[in-house]
Protein: Histidine ammonia-lyase
Organism: Streptomyces tagetis
Amino acid sequence: MHTVVVGTSGVTGADVLAVARHGARVELSEEAVAALAAARAIVDALAAKPDPVYGVSTGFGALATRHIGPELRGRLQRNIVRSHAAGMGPRVEREVVRALMFLRLKTVCSGHTGVRPEVAQTMADVLNAGITPVVHEYGSLGCSGDLAPLSHCALTLMGEGDAEGPDGTVRPAGELLSEHGIRPVALREKEGLALLNGTDGMLGMLVMALADLDTLYKSADVTAALTLEALLGTDRVLAPELHAIRPHPGQADSAANMLAVLKGSGLTGHHQDDAPRVQDAYSVRCAPQVAGAGRDTLAHARLVAERELAAAVDNPVVLPDGDGADLGTGGGRVESNGNFHGAPVAYVLDFLAIAVADLASIAERRTDRLLDKNRSHGLPPFLADDAGVDSGLMIAQYTQAALVSELKRLAMPASVDSIPSSAMQEDHVSMGWSAARKLRTAVDNLTRVIAVELYAATRAIPLREGLTPAPASRAVVDAVLAAGVEGPGPDRFLAPDLAAAEAFVREGRVVTAAETVTGPLR
């Protein structure tokens, strides 16, 4: 099994996917263990002094004015975990929780949190045992980080609350830890707070969305090409020189992908045979411009994710002497900061939801064009076998339209909202967790929208009798049929076909099928 080693300089998106989705083992590097010990020594030195230090010897948030004596500090750290584990609603998906835990471990290992090495090791042990804390949908305002979700994870480290075992059964966390030989942690100064205070949930969901959207954007290029072909459109609008004079990189990549899929087609270029058509409709002709803009949005979001993956997000943070201020005490200091604010991540999560909605919108317009006999240039109404007796794909487009309508609602930014909390101490929040949750729904819906276009296009192309599709198109059509999606014919129970098409898209098989002919798509 693949192993991910966590050091002091952050992790990669590939590391997150390996742990969250594929169960990769986690190990701490020697460098990380040394950094953990060094930072802990600073916290212990500060804890021994009479001066109050936030997170070490004070309360939290609006209660930070109270000085906490040594005899109450363990209780203080336990209490913040218990009280902040206040989530409600449905359970969050296992992969999201694993990403959340792994990314908090990443920050802990940076050496800026003051957590003891044994706590970090316990976090790794829980991940490696396949134990997944029960985390709920609601509870994070995205500032100070994803507090409630992270608190439920920390509760599991303490052997409290509920968690899901590797067999998928939810049981008391203490029982699961015991079965796997994991000793619950007894939190000390600063540790409870350090386990809760980060953007890890929203970041994990961003990383996974980026991976999914990379495949979906390639899939959309393929389905757009298939639709262009089925409509007897022209591929001349995809010529590289046309896109070079508007040098958006994503646009050039999308056009190149479509051109690669259409290479050798006997259907393109017939757009003036049945009736004069100087140019194709926007939904066909402008496919690279819309998908390309989304690709460039992905590139920006990826840059933000990479920066956040290299960050140490906590408040307060442990800094060694000589790191920038004049508050040195002993070997270092603990400083309050605002790095836990989720705005950078929240903004790109919302930006992606907008791009996703628009990609789905143009795909739906192409599907509708395939089904409308007045605009499909010779295809039967709704691609029906015997129109009037058969309804064909009429209602498949209704389903697609309903999904697009919901995507438009999901495109409303979450990050423009803010509700003050903690007695006005935390008076501006990011709502990044909410932005991430709605983006996950949006990605699922986009998958379904592309699946409907795929189904319609692969049904339409065989109806162009006497014309030969491009080899890549033929490969996609054949792969779809082999996956259990039936081709043209009389009406039948449509939901199973749509479900099979959805699985085909979700598993990346649209891209895989096309690439057997085209080679790697961009």
